[in-house]
Amino acid sequence: QSVLTQPPSVSGAPGQRVTISCTGSSSNIGAGYDVHWYQQLPGTAPKLLIYGNSNRPSGVPDRFSGSKSGTSASLAITGLQAEDEADYYCQSYDSSLSGSDWVFGGGTKLTVL
Amino acid sequence: QVQLVESGGGVVQPGGSLRLSCAASGFTFSSYGMHWVRQAPGKGLEWVAFIRYDGSNKYYADSVKGRFTISRDNSKNTLYLQMNSLRAEDTAVYYCAKVSEPSNYYDSSLDIWGQGTMVTVSS
Questions:
Q1: Percent of chain B beyond pLDDT 70?
Q2: Residue in A closest to B59 by C-alpha
Q3: In this structure, is the dihedral angle defined by the CA atoms of residues A49, A53, A54 and A56, taken in order, positive or negative?
Q4: For the purposes of burial, counting CB atoms within 10 Å of the CB of B45, is it exposed (0-12), middle (13-18) or buried (19 or more)?
Q5: Are residues B109 and A47, on separate chains, in Cβ contact within 8 Å?
Q6: Which site in B74, B83, B86, B95 is 20 to 30 Å from A19, CA atoms measured?
Q7: How far apart are CA B49 and CA A52, in angstroms?
């Protein structure tokens, strides 16, 4: 069971908007640590998609956006395209009495209908 | 260009050992902390270990603590993961990844990833 909770799957038709949630707790997202998002296309390594909650690296289309509030974060994809079909992971830092770790969400598979 | 290339994966028996390497190029390796992240077949990403830019601090996931050792040789621009007492559940693709911010390692994203190397633990 992942420290950060994501829906296992989401889907949408081309051109639509989808969101992927990432729910944490007071020891990670709620503690103020940044949330980062990664896209993993089939058979490839993960790629940084959003960093620092809402920033896009150079080359990432502005169809992708991120936000954070309280103990949760979200990734939104507008104008859905077939090439967006991939697995998406959120990641943050977790610091509690039992120790500190870098943590990932369980991943969300995006299907473009 | 900025690149990370892993090597050293393979098939090993339970209880065996393996050392993974990650060769870095295109950036000042000695300035950045580095992670190992793994992905079991059909599963999600799992953080494994982190080492600071100068090797002064190392951190491990509970699942590998005491069995795996992360290290680096800044003169060779290379990151390592020594894996001992391997178990079937260690079977995964292992990725090395670079932090994006040299100074804020715990809150930093992983901006560059290698292509991964497969480790299979099986008798």
A1: 100
A2: A101
A3: negative
A4: buried
A5: no
A6: B95
A7: 21
Give tens-digit pLDDT for B29-75. Answer: 999 999 999 999 999 999 999 999 999 999 999 999 999 999 999 99
Beta bridge partners of A37: A50, A90
Residue A94 has pLDDT above 80, yes or no: yes
3-state SS of chain B? CCEEEEECCEEECCCCCEEEEEEEECCCHHHCCEEEEEECCCCCEEEEEEECCCCCCEEECCCCCCCEEEEEECCCCEEEEEECCCCHHHCEEEEEEEECCCCCHHHCCEEEECCCEEEEECC
Q: Is B46 an interface residue toward A (CB < 8 Å)? A: yes
Is pLDDT at A81 greater than 90 in this prediction?
Answer: yes
CA distance A104 to chain B (A): 6
Mutation pick from A102, A104, A108, A109 vs chain B, by most beta carbons of B within 10 Å, is A102
**Structure confidence at residue B102 as a pLDDT band (50, 70, 90):** confident
Contact B110 A47 (CB under 8 A): no
3-class state of residue A84 by DSSP: helix
Q: What is the mean pLDDT of residues B67-86?
A: 98
Instruction: Inspect the interface and report whether the beta carbons of A100 and B59 lie closer than 8 Å.
Output: yes
